[in-house]
Write a structure and sequence with these properties.
By secondary structure, the chain is α/β, with parallel strands linked by helices. It has a single domain, classed as OB fold (Dihydrolipoamide Acetyltransferase, E2P). The protein is 44% helix and 23% strand. A five-stranded mixed beta barrel has the order 2-3-4-6-5. The radius of gyration is 26 Å and the shape is globular. It starts with a helix and ends with a strand.
């Protein structure tokens, strides 16, 4: 074999080698997902709601207990019961309790918490937005998502579920004087703690009488 033939043979082998390692195969559904970039927030939220959130509601701190603890040991209480995605003063709590309905408004319901504090809080029943439920649960790490858009879309899907499935049947039956059992999420500022303006995002509601 001539030197020229050898040179061409080597070149051919090199090209073949590079070409082989430049080609790889993926499942068609993986390719479609990568190309479309679609994330099904509704399906993810439904799975999270049924398999994680609702089963873990029993671990939510009692609202009356939380208020008492925040008055006496705020720093320790935030450390023990709150969740947050990062550093900062805004923290989220998963809460539960019983309460008497003081009034039913178009956008919110005022509740008087049962217990030693008998404090009134506002439960939102119309403008349910934000990240309270997603973050208060402590069950959805940001690392599960490829981007913040998908992560935020979960909050939107959770809030939509609350507005469409949790609140309507409650509002149809509730009235002033009703006794209720509630599970929900609240947001508090650790640095500027104000226990006189607590807003509750409901997750599960039950009228007891």
């Amino acid at each position: 074999m001539s030197k020229k033939s050898i040179k061409y043979t080597i070149a051919f082998v090199v090209v073949l080698f590079i070409g082989y390692h430049s080609v790889y195969f993926r499942k068609l559904d993986e390719v479609k997902a990568a190309v479309s970039g679609n994330f099904d927030a509704t399906t993810y939220t439904s799975d999270f709601w049924n398999k994680k959130l609702i089963p873990n509601l029993r671990k939510a701190v009692n609202m009356d207990t939380l208020i008492t603890a925040l008055k006496t040991q705020p720093e320790q209480t935030f450390k023990q019961y709150s969740h947050a995605l990062g550093i900062g003063n805004i923290k989220y709590f998963m809460v539960q309790g019983e309460a008497e309905v003081v009034s039913v408004g178009e956008n919110s319901t005022i509740l008087k918490i049962s217990g030693n504090n008998t404090k009134e809080i506002e439960m939102l029943t119309e403008y349910v937005y934000g990240n309270e439920v997603r973050d208060a649960s402590g069950l959805i790490p940001m690392t599960e998502f490829d981007n913040t858009m998908d992560f935020n879309s979960v909050s939107a899907a959770i809030n939509k579920k609350i507005r469409e499935e949790v609140i309507p049947p409650f509002k149809q039956k509730v009235k002033a004087g009703s006794l209720i059992k509630f599970f929900g999420a609240i947001e508090l500022n650790q640095k500027y703690l104000n226990l006189n303006q607590i807003e509750l995002i409901p997750i599960k509601l039950e009228i007891l009488n």
